[in-house]
Write a structure and sequence with these properties.
mainly alpha; two-stranded antiparallel ribbon; globular
């Protein structure tokens, strides 16, 4: 049973990762819509989907692995109330997380480890979603 669960989890993570390594639609994002991530199979994922599948795994309300995203958003938005600045600072940190860049500091969590997030356009789209969304 454990072997099956491990295989299922590994396969799911692999599928999620490959689904989101596609190109981002670079058209201007209207204020009420979010960019779609499209795979070669033409399956569309919104930035909201990407956020919930990638970010909330760690940044959940339980805070078992990382601080809850609305708490991080509040710290960033106080320092960078302008949307462009907010997006740039979040993207800069996620693409290269370093202690000296970290704004949300608590003894409960260390600096975010470098992850598999290497696409600046996707990270900026997610940061824009975080900035604009009131119900994370």
């Amino acid at each position: 049973m454990k072997k099956f669960s491990l295989i299922a989890i590994t396969l799911t993570l692999f599928l999620v990762f490959t689904a989101f390594t596609s190109k981002i639609n670079k058209s201007r994002m209207p204020d009420n819509e979010y960019t779609e991530f499209t795979t070669p199979e033409h399956t569309e994922f919104t930035v909201k989907d990407y956020y919930f599948k990638q970010c909330t795994f760690c940044h959940s309300p339980s805070e078992r692995l990382a601080p809850y995203m609305p708490k991080i958003k509040n710290v960033y938005i106080k320092k960078y109330p302008d949307e462009y600045d907010f997006i740039q600072k979040i993207a800069d940190f996620v693409l290269e997380p370093k202690e000296e860049k970290r704004l949300y500091k608590t003894a409960d969590f260390e600096t975010m480890p470098p992850e598999m997030f290497h696409d600046p356009d996707k990270i900026k789209a997610v940061a824009r979603y975080i900035y604009r969304e009131n119900n994370l």
